[in-house]
Amino acid sequence: MGDYLRDAITLGGVYVLFSLGLTLSWGVLNILNLAHGNVLVAAALSAYLLTTQVALPMALLLPACMLVGALLGLGLELLVFRPIRARAADEESTQLAVLIGSVAAGALLYAIAERITDGRVRAVDPGTFTVTDYLVAGVRVSNLQLLIVGVSLVLSVLLALLVSRTRHGRALRAIAVDRVTCGLLGVPTARLAAVTMATAGALAGAGGLLLALHLGSVEASMTESLLLKAFAVIIIGGVGSVGGAILGAYLLAGAEVFSVAYLGSGVRDAVVFLVILGLLLLRPQGLFARTAWQRS
Amino acid sequence: MMLAAADWFGAGDSTIRTALVYVLLAYGIHLALRTGTFSLAAVATYGTGAYTAGALALDGWSPVAAVAAAVVQAAVAGLVLALVLARLRNLYLAMATLAAVLLVHVLALEWESVTGGALGLLGIPRGVTVPQLLVIVALCTLAVALGERGRTGRMLEALRLDDQLAASVGIDVVRARRVAFVLSAALGGLAGSLSALQFSVLTPDEISFALIVDVLTIVVIGGTAAWYGPLIGAVALAWLPELLRWTGDLRPIVQAAIVVVLVVCAPDGAAGLIRAVAARLRRLRRRENGLDVVPAVEGAVR
Amino acid sequence: MFRQSTARRGRLAVIGAALSAVMILTSCGSSGGDTAEGAPSAQGQGQVYKVGFPALLSGAAAFAGKPIAQGAEVAVEEINETGFLGQGSTVELKIEDIKSDPAKAIALYRQYATDGAVGVLCCGLSNEAGALAPVIRQSKVPAIVTSAILDGLASPPSLFRPVVLPSSPGGVYDKFVDSMAKAEGYKTAVVVVNGDVDAMVADGKVWAAAMERNGVKVLQTVAVGSADRDFTAPATQIEALAPDVVVASTLGTPTALLARSLRDRGYDKRILSSYGASGPALFDAGGSGLAGLAFATPFAADHPVNDTARKFTERYTAKFNAAPDMFAAQGYTAMWLLALGMKNAGASPTPESVGQGLSQVTTQESVYGNLRYEGGQAILDSPGVYLEWTKDGKFSELSNGS
Fold first, then answer.
1. pLDDT above 90 as % of chain B
2. What does the pLDDT read at residue A266?
3. What is the mean pLDDT of residues C283-301?
């Protein structure tokens, strides 16, 4: 029981990191970024490439992966999303064009990842980070699991503070409501969009590293199932809600781990679909949508 | 280029078959997009249709019966989805239908007694010839082309531009969208069933994110401005590997990069380009004839 | 071709390949020659035996397809050099890429039949095997299955399979478990199977029965998906059961990742698996977590069971500058079986007479040891080589009790 709880909390931590970026870009910029998973893989792959070349301590590896993610997020915004936004006629067609753009960009990142891994699963094994176990309340917990939970907690608290307490955050919430008016009022919307995408990318970067360590491996296609989990998290939590995403991630991870433990691994995805379908039917705005910034 | 064309038509029987199937699937997406709906439901029913037709054909059903059953199944699935997702629009709908595609993939993997699990369905009797396929594609193309003219065409255009506008001119928006959704799903089912009956092997891999990428690539290249968009897109997608042969191992990367550039620089695709050129030519002719009319209508229809 | 245009369809195709050979993941490190070129054509006035091979040279299954084709090429070279089919008689092997398309495999098979081939090597993937087998059974040109392990493929006089099926009664698994259980004294075991792959589930039952027969209690059979990448939950479950041995009746990649997760959880006892765990590239996926993972394999380049294996390894290494793997051995063995059939067919071979000739083959001296044939299916009586992964990605040999 304790073991399963520990697994659920670890998995929840990974889901949080992945979903936060996705829900952030959707909530603030109305971007459903389907390349988000590929950014995560890119970060995990750079961890793989880095650790096979040099022995990097975790204190450097984590920032390096977050940097890769942030740069890719920034690149997506500047090279793909912004030009598309500049051309499109109205908000609705912008959303769809950007969505298609993200699929195309994701396919490009995927093709590169496929090339690097040669289409195979690659073990990620940072020599400098040795997994050691501790006994916490009778449950064996590894330092890796503590790291995953710790990083996801710290980053999500930082994000929540950024959004709710800073001027920056106020500006983000404002452009989430009405980008055009904000632009007229002198809010630097373009810069804020770039910052948002970079932040989302950095979160995915951290998620990529920790997921790779958690699984012990990286693979170009490892995000497809993750994308689905993130959808479920966003649906539970409500688009754009940081707190909702955190709750959603842990609820989903718990449901998954315990259903796998008691019903077998075949039901794993079924649980996710049940959550998605049920909520779409009953409460499309999400369970915890009180704080959602904007709904379209 | 000519050489490549000759090579393509000479060599790739299965390439042609795939291209034709993809045209149908692309029409499924096209139809939804024309009504201003971003729905990937057609990709999901492509999967269910393929498995329905494949499993039935393995049970000894005739190809016609298997395809018909698959199309009916897909239409029903489309109706159910339309009802369940009725309240969703835009990104929410895109996400929900994308989840449906991934659901079909998982079902194909897990429901082993029907789908054959990871190995898929093997030895499906081949029941569709290329000429038959050509006829089906021609009929569907004709139907789509006709649907974009006259009253239905104007209705589609109004739906795409603005719900309130559409309602104000007497269109039952909810019903029209539902019809488009069901037709889109049925087209997806048709494409899937025809695919299953041609390649004799059906694996869960066929219905995955990659299929979405392929279909969207067609949409991007062809554009959604006119009925011939998906045709151009599917032929181009079939042709790309041949055209990019010189890039060798780097082909998937180069191809993906080209699509990204197209999305960013030519968002209306080939159909949009053709329309723009045609409009300009018409304007020139009018000017020559001394009829210098304001081309506002062209701009609105795009 | 463009059925794979976006390459994302890779994973399951790889699973298909793995199914076909029980094993996944083998690096095709050797670049080799252009395999599509085929062997030099015949000289002299002897007979020319045309053989076609619709192979998997590109796409996700190329890691298996390339070494299979290269193994077959080595066999052709040997057959032609030694004059095995009579003075001046040669085999002309035509290898062509099916580009991951079963329909193309069927088209090529028909083409070879029209071009006068007397035999065909085929069915690299189980997918292709499933698609091709019905066609082959209805036509004349006999085919040798190089790697597919799909049920009931062998059916003389049209389909022959020199692939060792380790789960047959008294076969490789049974002997392996007997030997290991005796040497290491297991009391309890957990069996992990790929629940979505019939062959792996069936193999799991064979493993479990072999364990029970040796007085080992099977605590539980855990089902995992062949496309799963997260094995932390099963690892937790197994760790709680604390068995003396874990049997992984899983494909190569899941085996590597499971072993890795078990080791991360601190499970340090024996893990047994099939020869799917033998690919050098398994180490890419599992890393040092593979240490202590043991398997039985009919062929290992570094541990040859006989002179045939030794010579094959030498020739292959000289030609392709890399050691042959299990797939290469399968291609080599398949081509040699066809040669035996062609020899039996006598002076003026036709597809029918080669089919008859193949039906007459009862034994084959192979790189695995002596193969017996029953109903076109190969059976291996020797135990194979027992190997164990070390921490640094190498193999150390375990006693096979013989």
1. 19
2. 66
3. 88
What's the CATH class of domain C48-164+304-367?
alpha beta
Nearest CA-CA distance, residue B84 and chain A, Å: 6
Q: Confidence class of residue B117 from pLDDT cuts 50, 70 and 90? A: confident
User: Which string of b and e fits B30-45 if b means at least 16 CB within 10 Å?
Assistant: bbbbbbbbbbbbbbbb
pLDDT in tens, A184-223: 777 778 888 899 999 999 999 999 999 998 888 898 888 7
Q: Would you call B213 and C2 a contact, using CB atoms and an 8 Å cutoff?
A: no
* Token pair of B181 as six digits: 């959704």
Q: Flag whether pLDDT at C283 surpasses 60.
A: yes
Instruction: Indicate yes or no: pTM above 0.90.
Output: no
Q: Among 3.10.20.30, 1.10.3720.10, 3.40.50.2300, 3.40.50.300, what is the CATH number of C172-297+384-397?
A: 3.40.50.2300
Using a CB–CB cutoff of 8 Å, tell me whether C261 touches chain A.
yes
Whether residue B122 and residue C16 make contact (CB cut-off 8 A), yes or no, is no
A10 with C232: Cβ contact below 8 A: yes
Q: For residues A29 and A23, give the distance between their C-alpha atoms in angstroms, rounded to a whole number.
A: 10
Residue of C nearest to B253 (CA): C6
- Which of A26, A100, A266 minimises the CB distance to B216? A100
Task: Write down the domain spans for chain C.
Answer: 48-164+304-367, 172-297+384-397
Using the predicted structure, report yes or no on whether residue B166 has a pLDDT greater than 80.
Answer: no
Q: What is the pLDDT of residue B302?
A: 39
Give the pLDDT mean for C69-81. Answer: 94
Task: Tell me the pairing of strands C188-194 and C217-224.
Answer: parallel
Which residues touch A31 (CB under 8 Å, ≥6 apart)?
A25, A81, A95, A98, A99, A102, A197
For C159-174, the DSSP string reads EEB----TTSTTSHHH
CA-based radius of gyration for chain A: 19
**Tens digit of pLDDT for each residue in A99-111?**
989 999 999 999 9
pLDDT of residue C33: 36
Q: Tell whether the model's pLDDT for residue C98 goes beyond 70.
A: yes
* Pair of tokens at residue A258: 């315990």
Rounded Cα–Cα distance for residues A238 and A234 (Å) = 5
Alpha carbon of B115 to those of A278, B49, B50, B162, B212: distances in Å? 25, 12, 10, 42, 21
Residue B11 pLDDT grade (very low, low, confident, very high; cuts 50, 70, 90): very low
Residue-wise pLDDT tens digits, B213-255: 889 889 888 888 788 889 999 988 888 887 888 887 888 899 8
Residues of C in Cβ contact (< 8 Å) with A221: 8, 10-11
Instruction: Go through chain A and tell me how many residues it has.
Output: 296
Q: Which chain A residues in 126-145 lie under 8 Å from chain C, judged by CB atoms?
A: 131, 133, 140, 142, 144
The subunits that touch chain A, with at least 3 C-beta pairs less than 8 Å apart, are B, C
CA nearest neighbour of C272 among C197, C348, C174 = C174
Asked if the domains C48-164+304-367 and C172-297+384-397 are classified in one and the same CATH topology, the answer is yes
| C218 bridge partner residues | C189
Q: At residue C28, does pLDDT exceed 50?
A: no
- Looking at the complex, does the CB of residue C12 fall below 8 Å from at least one CB of chain B? yes
CA B191 to chain centre: 9
A77 in Cβ contact with A197 (< 8 Å):
yes
Residue A99 and residue B38: Cβ atoms within 8 Å? yes
Residue type at B248? G
Could you tell me which of A31, A9, A33 has the C-alpha nearest to residue A227? Answer: A33
